[in-house]
Design a protein that fits this description.
alpha/beta, single chain, 10 helices, Rossmann fold
């Protein structure tokens, strides 16, 4: 083995790691139970990451987008001469795009919150089927109104994106007796999905859905995917549930659809601008549920994410193929 090859092999076996998170010390403790021999550095701000990378000459950065996208230190990661692998603590990687996969490997924690996000989607379907907005409004006015709820069994949910989250949504929907339609870039049979279609078939699917669950990453092909044409084609009683990324739903088109009563309502966990500005018109709609990008946030998710990274780090040190490698063109 040449000296250069030996040096490269040694660097893979004992890489320098940065944990970039607002809970970096907690993550470091989890990581070092499996990799006690490694140098692990902590960084808990966006501002300090460039200096920490430069000072430590880190090979690997485990990074959580903990303070939004606008100020995320993307350049520090992509322009580094030493960082070879960025492990994203969540599933979305749009804040890093574009990157050169020949120079930098990006992985994510896809699936770490799939079950929780599916429960969120189910909860929002029940929110509308149980008429909770009307009952809550009546309660505020101390009014006893005629009550009737509707089952979600036999209703149709259209799942846009059949990654781990979309598949988890399908499992819960089927367990509740729903009919499931799915859309993915490369159609193929998926468990608990009655029929899987390509994106080109979406125009024929909108009118069939009682609920539309948006679970795709944000890439150029999905930007504004839920458009004015989509809303015009939906049922008047359709409910949109968005757990994807801000930008997949055309927000102006959604506002127009709500103003024109084209759909029953929406449950939104993601927005083009986060936090959602306090003067944004979406706040005013009684038939819109707004949550602060929290469908994937639950007690213990950080530990699960770091454990996934730790497993991948073991593969890296052994020279094995990493899991959850993200293709920047596909976004997953």
């Amino acid at each position: 083995m040449s000296d250069q090859a030996h040096s490269r092999d040694q660097a893979m076996q004992t890489p320098i790691v940065i944990v970039h998170s607002d809970k970096a010390m907690q993550a470091k403790q989890v990581l070092q139970t499996r990799h006690p021999d490694l140098k692990v550095h902590c960084c808990e701000t966006y501002r300090d990451l460039p200096d920490v990378i430069s000072r430590t000459r880190a090979d690997i950065v485990y990074s959580v987008r903990f303070a939004g996208t606008p100020d995320f230190p993307r350049a520090a990661l992509l322009d580094s001469k030493t960082v070879k692998w960025v492990s994203v603590g969540g599933s979305g990687t749009d804040h890093l795009n574009p990157w050169d996969p020949h120079k930098l490997t990006v992985t994510n924690a896809a699936g770490v919150a799939a079950d929780m996000m599916a429960q969120y989607v189910l909860g929002m379907m029940l929110h509308f089927s149980l008429r909770l907005p009307q009952f809550l409004e009546a309660k505020r006015g101390r009014r006893w109104i005629a009550g009737q709820v509707e089952p979600i069994a036999d209703k149709v949910v259209l799942i846009i994106g059949l990654g781990k989250t979309g598949q988890a949504v399908a499992r819960l929907a089927k367990a509740n007796g729903m009919k499931t339609l799915g859309v993915r870039a490369r159609p193929q049979p998926v468990a608990c999905v009655d029929a899987v279609h390509g994106v080109s078939e979406l125009s024929q699917l909108w009118e069939r859905a009682d609920y539309v669950a948006v679970c795709v990453p944000l890439v150029e092909s999905t930007r504004a995917l839920i458009s004015s044409d989509a809303f015009r084609a939906m049922k008047e009683m359709a409910v949109l549930i968005d757990v994807s990324r801000g930008g997949v739903v055309d927000e102006q088109a959604l506002l127009d659809a709500l103003d024109s009563d084209l759909i029953r309502g929406a449950a939104l966990d993601v927005f083009s601008t986060e936090p959602l500005p306090d003067d944004h018109p979406l706040w005013a709609y009684e038939n819109v549920v707004i949550t602060p990008h929290c469908s994937s946030v639950f007690e213990g998710w950080e530990v699960k994410s770091v454990e996934m990274f730790s497993d991948n780090l073991t593969r890296y040190r052994r020279g094995e193929t990493l899991t959850n490698v993200v293709d920047p063109k596909r976004g997953y």
